């Protein structure tokens, strides 16, 4: 695929959430959330925007810039940004890697809620067993190869599995 | 620590290279100017020193008047015989030669019957004694010296260029007419590489005396001493023989004097060029400062790591300064080659504009190397030092932070104070330079120069505070038209004012100067054009081919054969002295002058002039305390005195005045001045100017090709055209500083892209296309450029208005040419677009995943 085709694919089908949030410092939260649609030149559906913002719990922080937001709040903005385009798949790369455990829990709830609320397919990469525990399907990778698979599991089941994988 | 600095520099070759380029350009201009002007000077030196190589003493007529069109006083031929009889004299010979310009001219015809070198380059006519070749600076390459009437030798350059060989016949035009000649020899002048387009025609002495109507006179007598007699002794012996209007010098002293007379202007060319080089270097200063400051900011983490590892402040400081020093030194060294290349370019620029100058190789003086090298290095180190102090303030904790977006301060607290102090200094100096009258020009220029510099630094110091609001305004079209990319670009431009400001400031300097020069030059030109238009009422004006020199008085009469010509009014022109003041003089025909020229007179009008009466230019009369009714003495270039009575004054326009300080009748002029020549001849045609009359007159004057005819409007235009030509030279020279600022923009952008790698990766990940990312960078660059223009243009306009005021109301009509200003805005946008090409491409090519991983 050409670069233009890849870009189009990303616009319509893929949403990204990063470990370091990657928000633009000079834009407000609302502007950051709407950025991908603005780039694509698509109209923002106000009702959907409000719903997503409500869902991630940012309704009262929309006019703040990233520097005025906590890490958890910044990650909420990033999730909202990813959800707004209704992507086919949302990729989350260590979304809790840069957050404390309480905030991590909140972010994981937000991600899970997106799956429950409107069936958002989400693929998350993580080292955190607690994070993995929110997934419906868990693949264990070692050196780039899938070595084990679990269905819905608790954090301790994930940890056990992880131990088994690393001991091998 | 030294190792760290050097290794660091090597690992950032590209960045160092870009910084270096900015320095190289500015420095190259300075050294190029030195190389070129040294070359010109060397050529003049060798012309004049070879002129008197075998001459121990020279008797010349005194130069009584500067820039006279009839030359200096002459030496009577009778003196030669007396000199030859002196016991210490081995040999003596008369010479007819005037290398200082337009007096003894002989214009060669080419093989198609056209006069060569009609405009611009000097065409020297020389008389040399074929038996006294030791005094002759030229040496034959073929044939023999001219020894009889009708014979001539021409210089090798001209022979090669126009395909002449020994034995060919052609014609030569001198003041007294056109004469057939047979080329009997070809000669070379000294050991000069090129005479810059000048041509020589060498006759024997009697022919030269006849052609140049010198009678029994020489321009000089060259004398060689007997063996063992010093030049000084010879000079004092000759002094006892020489008449009052002649002087005796040793050959060496005369060579130095001639060189000074002719080549003095080289000094001004040098000052002029070096001045523009300094501007480019100054602009380069902004670029260097900015690049180094970004580098330091980006290295916050690295420097802090060094500090946590135990490096002292001092060591960090030293490493930054060292980096600056090495960059500055290396770049300034590269300039040697660039400078020499540029000297060739400048030389080409001058010849393209018809200002060919003689050159002798490419001499490289110590100064050429030392001055620019010092300037470039010192500038870089100063910039480095300021930044080093800033860098050492970095707290080691910064290392722990996520340093990718280490933001810079808003220019520090010192900014406004520096701006206020320098701004006040600048205002005072500029006011002094522009508004105070009666100040010597040198001091005024110095005040203006330093004033300009401090103004720019002051502006740059507060610039960072203005960036935000101005970008808000300038960004409107970009945000409207550029979509999200444009919006983001506008945010990015305003994001780091401490960085955008110097980048834009560098361009601002160029734009300010360009708009200042452009407006002021335009106004001057328009006023000059109006002045010429208002003074001439004749249908046609006849001038010499180049429009400035005087021409033979017969040439103007060529129109007599044209049907319908009613009036041909000759106006003679030359220069002389009244008291100690240089004074131009015109001889007019009282019966026709009022039909061809309009001047407002007080007292007697020009049409009533007769006998010894003179009408004076109002300013000249005032400056020299002359009043109507006063009697005064006018001295011509040969020293002859004429008593004149002032009967009136005329109002001269402040800019170019058609008539000179003293206006007398043509009869008086012809009787009082040697070799009278015309400055203008005015022609009126029955029924006024028409295409038919123009064609007929042009054909009539084309026959002997000495003079050219123009309509009144055409004459006014060509008389004021030099101002436009000057403007073009200045544009080319200022373009250099714009190019330097372009490098600065490239640099800043490239570093910004580098710094925002992860951000651009994210934007690409969430759906930005390559095109959009390129557009984002390009728009940022265009906004930065516009920012420079937005400040530069108004400052330039205000300065131009001030300059007009300072010149004391030359009657300039202050209009703002919207067209040219738009051109400058477009130009700055082009600079932006060009600057963005490479950084934008880099941004577009970023690999999305790699960019996201980038730290």
Give keywords.
heterodimer, A: 168 residues, alpha/beta, Rossmann fold, 2 domains, three-stranded parallel sheet, two-stranded antiparallel ribbon, 5 strands, 49% helix, globular, B: 855 residues, alpha+beta, 4 domains, seven-stranded mixed sheet, six-stranded mixed β-barrel, 16% strand, elongated
Structure in a nutshell:
The complex is a heterodimer of chains A (168) and B (855). Chain A is α/β, with parallel strands linked by helices and 168 residues long.
Question: Could you explain the architecture of this structure?
Answer:
The complex is a heterodimer of chains A (168) and B (855). By secondary structure, chain A is of the alpha/beta class. Chain A is 49% helix and 15% strand. Chain A has seven helices and five strands. Chain A has a three-stranded parallel β-sheet with strand order 1-2-3. A two-stranded antiparallel ribbon of chain A has the order 4-5. In chain A, α5 links the parallel β2 (89-93) and β3. The longest helix of chain A is centred in the middle third of the chain and has 18 residues, at 101-118. Chain A is globular. The mean pLDDT of chain A is 88. With 855 residues, chain B is α+β, with helices and mostly antiparallel strands. Chain B has four domains: 1-53 and 252-406, no CATH class; 74-244, no CATH class; 464-535 and 720-855, no CATH class; 552-705, no CATH class. Chain B is 55% helix and 16% strand. In chain B, strands 4, 5, 6, 7, 8, 9 and 10 form a seven-stranded mixed β-sheet that branches. In chain B, strands 15-16-21-18-20-19 form a six-stranded mixed barrel. Chain B has a four-stranded antiparallel β-sheet with strand order 3-12-1-13. In chain B, a hairpin with a 2-residue loop joins β8 (169-174) and β9. The longest helix of chain B is centred in the first third of the chain and has 48 residues, at 251-298. The radius of gyration of chain B is 33 Å and the shape is elongated. The two termini of chain B are 24 Å apart. The chains are: A alpha/beta (168), B alpha+beta (855). Chains A and B meet through α1 and α2 of A and α13 and α20 of B.
